Amino acid sequence: MNKEEIVEDLIKSIRRFHSRYGSDATIQRFEESILKLNNPRLSCFFAGRITGADINAHQKVVLNSKDIECNINYASFLVEDKMDITDHLNVILESKDPENCFKFTDEVMYYPKIKDKKEKIKQLERIILDGKNPAISYLFAKLKFIRDFIDLKAHEKVILDSNDAQLSYYFAKEIEGADIKAHEKVVLASKDPKLCCLFAGDVKGADIKSHERIVLDSKDIDSWYNFAAKVEGADIKAFEKLILKANNPYYSCLFAIKIKGADIKAHEQIVLNSKNVKENYYFARDIVGADIKAHAKIVIDSKNFTYNFLFAREVKGADIKAHARVLLEQCTEDNNYMYNYDEDYDEISEKLPRESRREIETEDISRKLKLIKKDNH
Known about the structure:
Blueprint: H1 3-21, H2 24-37, H3 40-49, H4 55-65, H5 68-80, H6 86-95, H7 98-108, H8 117-131, H9 134-142, H10 152-162, H11 165-174, H12 180-190, H13 193-202, H14 208-217, H15 221-230, H16 236-246, H17 249-258, H18 264-274, H19 277-286, H20 292-302, H21 305-314, H22 320-330, H23 363-373
């Protein structure tokens, strides 16, 4: 703990002491000591927490320091007390730093009754625009409480001129009145399948087919699935063909579960051929018409304790006794039937509410569970 943190702890203690005993003399003596330190952080901390602090004296320390963070913090609690923030604003303006101007706007200018609010925001905005920083312009334009005072098109131009496809996506998605076609042009030129997928799915008025062509031409299987799953009007069969050709059990399982009209049997064959225990369990659990026996055989042959237990508990039509035999063979004090199972594939595996879980009622499994439960009592 550094010296400033020690003093801050003392200030907190004095605050509690003052609220309990009301000793103004003690507060005054301590405040004099704080002011002699000429430390803007401590003055800011003291003035913000102690009722009756000498606001003007501490303000002078903060202003003289030219410390950006302290000036922003001091202005933020001054504005809540309806006091003038002009001197602190001038410190920020003198820095000519766009990031400082954004922080001051974000943390101070939200208050509705600031004197000459529009002019103060314009002063901050001029420095931000001169900096031509597209990220700062995006964040500034995103602040809804200044939307009526700023030049939205000027900030949009900074972003478009930067040719930053990610910022163009965010601006088009989140800023009302954005030039959708101009930002879309930047995203399409990037040929980034993930951004094309997001733009097509999130931005009203997007050119779906242009984005779709880029995603289909890419080798990004995650974007193939996401486009098919999340973009209205996507060519499901074209994306399904690519995913089946990729022979990936994870995405075949996802596609079959999440996308209406999927070729269940084709995806099921890929999952079965993979012999991957997780996907076989999820496929059997979530797909109506799945070949339960075929998936169960893979899970049973794996002798995986977790997935045999889950298969028996969650899959309708499961051979309870067959899975119970695997559990009995695996029974050790370390196996706890309530532990959290693998969540590597969290898009597929969603924990069911306990009350909806099907009970396993055979003698073998009940005996097994009683043995394991001993660790919990």
